[in-house]
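From the methods appendix. Each design record in this collection lists the discretized structure first, followed by the designed amino acid sequence. Records were kept in a plain field format so they could be parsed without special tools. The example shown here is representative of the layout used throughout.

RECORD:
C-ALPHA CELLS (183 positions):
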C-alpha cells in the first residue's frame, strides 16, 4: 500500500535513511537526524508537497517526497524529489511505484518539472530515476566532501507536463481531496 506519511512513520523512515548517512555519500548529511527531527520534516513537508511511504504487512519499505526546488518565485512550478528504499526491498519496484504515485500528485498540484540530485557514482539510483522517466541534465563537480573524498552530484530532470502559457499557481497538497491510500 502506498499512502501519505504520518509522524508515526518517522522511526521507520529514519531506519531506512540512517545507513545512507552513516556509511555512504548518497546523502550529504553527516549526522543521522533523530526520529523527532524526521517527524518534524514530514510535518513541514505535507501541507505543501507529498511525502509517501510504501507499507507492506505493517512495515515501511520505502519513501519518496517532494519539496521546493529553489526559493525564487519563478521556480515555484518545479520541485526536488527524493527516494529511499529499505535495503531488503531494493530491486522489487518499490521506488518506481512510489515515484509513479508521487508524480500523479505533483501533476494534480500543477507542477511541471521534477529534479533529483544523485551523488555519483550510484548505479542503483540512476537506474531508478531512468526507469521513472528522468533524464540527466548536468553534473555539479566535486560539490560535496564526505567520508574523506569529494563527490560529484548528477542532476536529473523529469518533465511532469507541458508548461501552460500562463500557469495557474501550484495547489498545496492539503487542498487536494486525496484518498487515504493507493494500492
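DESIGN:
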Amino acid at each position: 500500500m502506498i499512502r501519505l506519511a504520518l509522524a508515526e512513520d518517522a522511526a521507520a523512515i529514519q531506519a531506512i535513511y540512517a545507513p545512507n548517512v552513516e556509511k555512504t555519500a548518497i546523502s550529504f548529511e553527516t549526522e543521522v537526524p533523530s526520529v523527532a527531527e524526521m517527524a518534524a520534516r514530514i510535518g513541514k513537508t505535507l501541507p505543501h508537497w507529498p511525502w509517501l511511504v510504501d507499507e507492506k504487512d505493517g512495515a515501511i519499505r520505502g519513501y519518496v517526497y517532494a519539496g521546493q526546488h529553489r526559493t525564487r518565485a519563478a521556480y515555484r512550478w518545479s520541485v526536488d524529489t527524493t527516494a529511499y528504499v529499505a535495503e531488503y526491498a531494493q530491486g522489487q519496484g518499490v521506488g518506481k511505484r512510489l515515484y509513479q504515485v508521487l508524480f500523479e500528485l505533483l501533476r494534480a498540484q500543477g507542477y511541471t518539472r521534477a529534479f533529483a540530485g544523485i551523488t555519483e557514482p550510484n548505479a542503483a539510483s540512476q537506474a531508478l530515476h531512468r526507469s521513472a522517466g528522468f533524464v540527466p541534465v548536468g553534473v555539479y563537480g566535486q560539490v560535496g566532501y564526505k567520508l574523506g573524498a569529494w563527490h560529484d552530484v548528477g542532476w536529473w530532470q523529469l518533465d511532469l507536463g507541458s508548461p501552460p502559457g500562463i500557469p495557474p499557481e501550484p495547489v498545496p497538497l492539503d487542498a487536494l481531496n486525496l484518498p487515504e491510500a493507493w494500492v
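APPENDIX NOTE: DSSP finds four helices and eight strands in the chain.
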